[in-house]
Amino acid sequence: MNKKLISYIFIIPALSLIILTIITPLFLMIRVSFLKPPEGTGFYIPDTFSIQNYQSVFDTYGVSIIINTIIFALEVSFFSILFGFAFAIIMQKLRYLWRIIFITSLLLLKFISPLIIIFGLQRILGGHGIVNESLITMHLINEHLDLNRNHIGALIAEIYLTIPFITIFLFYRLNSIDKEYLNAATGLGASNYQVFRKITLPMCYPTIFIIWQLSIAWNLGSFLGPLFLGNPSNTTMSCEVYHQAFEVGNWPLAATWSVLMASIIMTFISIPKLTTSFILKKNS
Amino acid sequence: MINKIKLENLTYYYRDKKAVDDISLSLHSGKFLTILGPSGCGKTTVLKLIGGYLSPTKGSIFIDGIDVTSTSACSRKIGMVFQNYLLFPHLSARKNIAFPLEIRRLPKNECIQKVNAISELIGLSQKELERNPSELSGGQQQRVALARALVFEPHLLLLDEPLANLDKELRTKLRSELRRLQKEIKITTIMVTHDHEEALSNSDFIGVMNQGKLMQINDPKIIYDNPHSVFVANFLGQTNIIPANLLNISRSAMAHIRPEKIKIENYASECNWQKKGTITAITFMGADFLIELITNEGAQFKILSRNPPLFSVGSTITMGIDIESVWLIPDTLNDL
Fold first, then answer.
1. Site from B44, B102, B103 to mutate, A interface, most A CB atoms within 10 angstroms
2. Does A181 touch chain B (CB under 8 A)?
């Protein structure tokens, strides 16, 4: 049997799985997005074709949700990378035992259900939560701060959910940098800040770039934070999918939002790759 | 003449082990010192202590008469070339060289001028300067590392086995270039190596280290001919160390004589000590032949002969030594 044919046979199981679990549902979702919304009963009108869902997604309200989602994802990614980097540096400076405790705590966050974390954050950030009570006890504030049911609450929740994986990625990257490079830079006259700015940080750029892509892709689908700790003006595309599919029962519109969300995520992931390959092609 | 660098009782403990043991030395401005020793003897640690990468457990370091023992590495203004060069992989060769200037916030024009000047001196082309370190050969990387260490006009240049990663031909070429450059810039240099040929050919002074101790420091010629210990004698190349009484010297000590100073057959008759011996091995060394022989008393000798020997293993030949050229190793003298 020829080698090419054998390799195709080996690909079949993986290919079937991709077709069955990703491509088919995606096409079904795209098909549903072109169905007419329900009138009275049911979730859609079968055997119809309409672009009215796409028209309604791009009305003023829909566009504001899209913009809000993108801005929110960018904010979460930016702050998660910023704080994640700070945590990774702290972790690197810690002694072995503390480092293990720190890593375990971060991993534990990933093993706990996000719903429990969100519930905990509601309690912590609430009017009588530990944050407000502590600040009042220390006489740093006189009135309770609004940390719940607003943009800050949603942001804190999503950063909290994103930060563990970012910190661990960056910690391993920082650890993999040969310390001798940093010594060499110091010997050439660089201060600790200059070593970080000119050597450590640039050496982490490829990792930051990958993390940024993953974080954006993840946070464009932000759901729990905006839903439980945000307010209606913080609605994201995922919240809208949930609202249309499970509260309103308008499956075609929910499918349209899903298609749009998948497209935006694909665009955000593809743009840097396309740009890089374009630059490389131009340089070569 | 003021000492450019002076080490006083420098000691460094790595965990419980004494990595550097009470080292004192001084070096005048513009001189080239090579610290020679086997792997793990503490020579790189000495370099790192001078560079400020490690803090000594005890002792002091003076540069230009100023105590810099507690000065941080970034303030010492010392250029160092590491064994694996440690060129920053995300920067081009040009940016690597400009790094020490940029962090000192020198004007851009001045940076460009200095980088071009040092690159020209070291022999790096403009094309090579634009490449990333991974795109450069070992020799080119070594040149970039050297340029980076020299561009900011340091007080002192430290070289940590800079030629170790290169092939023999390139090593020989760069070795002489390094010396030429050092003499041209007149920079005080301390190099660390385990290669005695490198040390002998390049240095104004050689310091031999073993187990954290500085065994001997002196002019290469003196240290080669007059080692203070058996270790130093052995480390600087092939040698013969035999009891002095075998050479009819009435001292209780070990005598040291280099193989090239022993003469054979006709030439042996000119010497004031002669002995017959049986050849046990003949090794072709390229330029020379190494002849190993054993005397009737069981003493073994190594002899370097420029000419191809006319005899074979098992033949008996006469060897001769000028007793004046024999050096009694001071550390082995027992009859003082």
1. B103
2. yes
What is the CB neighbour count within 10 angstroms for residue A261? 19
Distance in Å, alpha carbon of B174 to nearest chain A alpha carbon: 22
For residue A120, give Cα distances in angstroms to A84, A130, A156, A221: 21, 11, 12, 21
Q: From the centroid of its chain, how far is CA A246? A: 23
Q: In this structure, is residue A9 part of a structural domain?
A: no
The DSSP call for residue B257 is: E
CATH 2.40.50.140 correct for B240-332: yes
Does A244 have pLDDT greater than 80?
yes
Q: What is the pTM of this model?
A: 0.81
Count of domains for chain A: 1
Question: DSSP characters for chain A?
Answer: --HHHHHHHHHHHHHHHHIIIIIHHHHHHHHHHTSBPPBSBSSSBTT----HHHHHHTSHHHHHHHHHHHHHHHHHHHHHHHHHHHHHHHHHHS-HHHHHHHHHHHHHHHHS-HHHHHHHHHHHHSTTSHHHHHHHHTTS-SS----SSSHHHHHHHHHHHHHHHHHHHHHHHHHHS-HHHHHHHHHTT--HHHHIIIIIHHHHHHHHHHHHHHHHHHHTT--HIIIIIS-GGG--HHHHHHIIIIII--HHHHHHHHHHHHHHHHHHHHHHHHHHHHHHHHH-
Q: Is some CB atom of chain B closer than 8 A to the CB atom of A194?
A: yes
Maximum mean pLDDT: which of A23-27, A41-45, B176-180: A23-27
Contact (CB<8Å) A186/B82: no
State the pLDDT at residue A147: 86
CATH number belonging to domain B3-234: 3.40.50.300
Contact status of A46 with chain B (Cβ, < 8 Å): no
Indicate whether A176 belongs to any domain: yes
Q: Do B99 and A198 touch (CB under 8 A)?
A: yes
Neighbours of A2 (CB within 10 A): 7
d(CA B129, CA B273) in angstroms, rounded, equals 60
Q: What is the CATH number of the domain that holds A138?
A: 1.10.3720.10
Domain boundaries, chain B: 3-234, 240-332
Nearest to B100 among A180, A188, A191 (CB): A188
Is A188's CB within 8 Å of B88's CB? no
Query: Amino acid identity, residue B258?
Result: R
Question: Tokens standing for B177?
Answer: 């270039």
pLDDT above 90 as % of chain B: 67
Question: Is the ipTM, as predicted for this complex, more than 0.95?
Answer: no
**A124-162 pLDDT tens trace:** 998 888 888 899 999 888 888 888 889 999 999 999 999
**C-alpha–C-alpha distance, residues B164 and A213, integer Å:** 42
In-domain check, residue A3? no
Which residue segment(s) compose the domain that A239 sits in?
57-283
Q: Is residue A226 one of the residues assigned to a domain?
A: yes
Sheet holding B327-328, edge to edge: B240-243, B254-257, B327-328
Q: What is the pLDDT of residue B214?
A: 95
B contacts of A198 (beta carbons < 8 Å): 99, 102-103
